[in-house]
Known about the structure:
The complex is a heterodimer of chains A (94) and B (329). Chain A has helices at 31-42, 67-75; strands at 7-13, 21-27, 50-55. Chain A has 94 residues and is α+β, with helices and mostly antiparallel strands. Chain A has a three-stranded antiparallel sheet, covered by helices on one side. Chain B has 329 residues and is mainly alpha-helical. Chain B is 65% helix and 2% strand. Chain B has helices at residues 21-31, 44-63, 65-69, 78-103, 109-117, 134-155, 161-189, 193-212, 222-229, 237-255, 280-290, 294-307, 309-328; strands at 265-267, 272-274. A two-stranded antiparallel ribbon of chain B has the order 1-2. In chain B, α2 runs antiparallel to α4 (78-103) and α6 packs antiparallel against α7. Chain B is globular. Chains A and B meet through β2 and α1 of A and α4, α7 and α13 of B. The complex binds fe (ii) ion (FE2) (3 copies). Residues 61, 64, 91, 145, 148 of chain B line the site of one fe (ii) ion.
Amino acid sequence: MKNEWPLWEVFIRGQHGLSHRHVGSLHAPDAEMAIKNARDVYTRRNEGVSIWVVKAADIAASSPSDKGPLYEPSQSKVYRHPTFFDIPEDVGAM
Amino acid sequence: MYAQMIKTASTGVKSREEMTEEERRFQDRIDAGEKIEPKDWMPDDYRATLIRQIGQHAHSEIVGQLPEGNWITRAPTLERKAILLAKVQDEAGHGLYLYCAAETLGVSRDELTEDLLSGKMKYSSIFNYPTLTWADIGAVGWLVDGAAIMNQVPLQRTSFGPYSRAMIRICKEESFHQRQGYDIMMKMAQGTPEQKRMAQDALNRFWYPSLMMFGPSDKDSIHSAQSMAWKIKINTNDELRQKFVDQTVPQAEYLGLSVPDENLKWNEETGHYDFTQPDWTEFFDVIKGNGPCNTDRMAARNKAWDEGKWVRDGLLAHARKRAARVAAE
Lengths: 94, 329
Ligand SMILES: [Fe+2]
Ligand SMILES: [Fe+2]
Ligand SMILES: [Fe+2]
């Protein structure tokens, strides 16, 4: 059996209320150690107040070749952006 | 640099006509400033070269802990000790960020480690020099981290996404390293005559090895032309070395120390310093394994790996047992 510790992806939430953000990965034998190691590797300068770790093997990802079918449809839907609509200045803030 | 003399896995830059359809599309993405991500198509040579380059960079960060670690227990004050400990811990982190970036290319951590331990993969020549006095710790932070920054700042724009992101993280942390080194040098240079002598001696010994960090001139190399086309190398070795000299000489003057180069002279015409090249015979000798500390460094890494085996195995066995128990419940 391969004796390399599994790879974990690390997500950190900073103190300013933004969502957890992917910061990198590391190897650890289990989740508990992964969190301890993440604390040492990725939060040495107050980068975060909360850590998530996920086994890299458990992450499902979209494939680069699906880029077209997945993301192109939204390009033509400019009306999803507020700037699509011209509202007269007289109406006030909106 | 931290990655010196990386042999690009290719026979030189291909013209557009020689490229396959896929290669053309790949080069277009790079030219357009897009990042290449691990699951994207990439030429085999791009992948192989990056594994070598990022791997060597990672190994340098890890081995680079040894010369500085040498002084942690002997730092002159508790504060200096805490600072040095934090600096060395950062370098361990840099190694880890970079190993992770390399692993996204399909090489495993253990393979990388084994290639370092067997001597198949290299690390920067600079870490094969000893740190003999406390002033050396100042010189290392000032010059060695200074040279590293020269190379790492442009690499933040490299084409491979994970490498670029690792570089951005690393660069944020490096300036602390250089400043704490310069701070030590200032203290020593303004200290007793003996302390000042130690500072000068450290500069004398680290000057040329620092210039070697950028590697021999590669302005005519086809390998480096390919790496530049792929944006995994941004500047030539000579450009970076010149930039380093131009930046460092005034800093030495401020310290009241002299750079050990009789030919060092400001050149009005070029707007740069003229300087003496390091001894490239010495460089190749150190790369081959004959530097003052190569044997020590490799022995220390091998010892850490061998003696840590029972810990790695034990923790993994424990994790597997516990997972099996949970699964059975
Ligand atoms: Fe570093
Ligand atoms: Fe470093
Ligand atoms: Fe550093």
